[in-house]
Amino acid sequence: MAGAVLLAACLFGLHLSDEIDAGPPGRPVTVAIPEGTSTVGIARELARARVIHSPTLFEVYIKVVGTKPLLAGTYRLPTNEGYAKVIAALEKGPVTKKLVVPEGFTVREIAQAVAALRTGITAEAFVRATHEVRSPYEPAGEHSLEGLLFPATYPVAVGESATQLVRYMVSTFDEQAQQVGLASAAKHLGYSPYQVVKVASIVEREAKLAADRGPIASAVYNRLARGMPVGAESTLLYGLGGGLPFHGRLELTANNPYNTFVNKGLPPTPIANLGVPSLEAAMHPPKTSYLYWVEVNPDGQMGFGTTEAQFARLQHECRAAHLC
Q1: Whether the predicted pLDDT of 12 surpasses 70
Q2: Residues 275 and 229 grouped into a single domain
Q3: Cβ–Cβ < 8 Å for 80, 24
Q4: Which has fewest Cβ within 10 Å: 30, 125, 158, 265?
Q5: Cα(261)–Cα(269) distance, rounded to whole angstroms?
Q6: How many CB atoms sit inside 10 A of residue 114's CB?
Q7: H-type helices in the chain, by residue range?
């Protein structure tokens, strides 16, 4: 009997040894370890991805050798990997790169920045994910997350999927919108939260100085209330290139759904992803009679007017400063 037990122990030891040093690694796979996952759960995720063969033996190995905390995140690990290398990777944490999303970036500009990180997400995959992931602020029938991705600095793990990243950016926007009270402010204004985001996106692209955000938002709402076209050059530019550089002469009568010089109401979607200051300006616009805004100073300062005569004077100032 004792001999049988000894033989079984030896065979188990040999099997465990084979698992610990599994031989040549295979192709890399992506493994996502959610926050709060237990050791048992981590072992199962690794086995499901075929990084290891036996979650039970992996748990035994961890108990025998002891480890530092195994960190959550998205990893690129080879299949058929040795236990020591797997644990070393999980102790170190996922390899990440820094994605900087400035206020005012469009989805296409964010996609290009993501692709430039070379983490495995292409610009095309990122844009595709923005059509698949939903936001609670996105109206039924709309499939664009423009304006609903929060500008911030994000860690992007090598091997992370486009969908995971987009979901993170959407949830970050949702948290910020909830904190500043977007839904209640929109209701007070008599608009939907999505419409307020559209106004905020116009403010984001039109205002160069913080002091001008509120007055621009006020002028937009005043024009909407009077049934006037919004008349924002930024919306037309978006329609011509999605926020990317436009080369050529602007045709203000162009047949373009984003041309708010000829189409009344707000554009079909927001035209940029906005920061909290622009969102708050659109949520809480000052009470003014402004209907016009024109850049009058090289530092970006806007001039504001209520009458066509005032608008004409502002345009004269703009031309005198060689800004238009």
Answers
A1: no
A2: yes
A3: yes
A4: 265
A5: 16
A6: 27
A7: 2-20, 39-48, 55-65, 83-92, 107-117, 123-132, 162-180, 182-189, 193-206, 213-225, 233-241, 276-283, 308-320
Residue 236 to residue 249: CA distance in whole angstroms: 12
Q: What is the mean pLDDT of residues 47-69?
A: 91
Asked if residues 260 and 251 have their Cβ atoms less than 8 Å apart, the reply is no
Q: What are 91-146's pLDDT values in tens digits?
A: 998 888 899 999 999 999 999 999 999 999 999 999 999 999 999 999 998 999 99
Closest CA to 63 of 71, 55, 51, 52: 55
Residues 6+ apart with CB under 8 A from 303: 293, 294, 295, 296, 314, 317, 318
Q: In this structure, is residue 193 part of a structural domain?
A: yes
Point out the domain boundary residue: 74, 92, 110: 92
- Which structural domain, as residue segments, surrounds residue 62? 14-92
Q: Which residues pair with 154 in a beta bridge?
A: 99
Last residue of a domain, one of 71, 92, 113: 92
Q: Does the pTM exceed 0.90?
A: no
CATH no. for residue 30?
A: 3.30.1490.480
Q: Report yes or no on 316 lying in a domain.
A: yes
What is the Cα–Cα distance from 157 to 114, expressed in whole angstroms? 11
Split into its structural domains, the chain has a count of 3
